[in-house]
Please model this.
Amino acid sequence: MIVLTKMNHERFLINHLQIECIEVIPESKIVMMNHDYYLVRETPDEIIAKIAQYNAKVQDVHRQITIEDRREND
Model:
């Protein structure tokens, strides 16, 4: 989930996997898969960067968890 800011400066978490599209009207309008929407202060580029950072963090955690020591013990 990523943190975004509503137009009234209220911060909230959003499941980025449920985003259908982002419209620029001129603020960013995030349309969800269920057709609800949120107007946010972040630009589409900032939203995309937050999603990329979150995905990179999740993949890194997964990579750390799945490392397995296959050396033989003497």
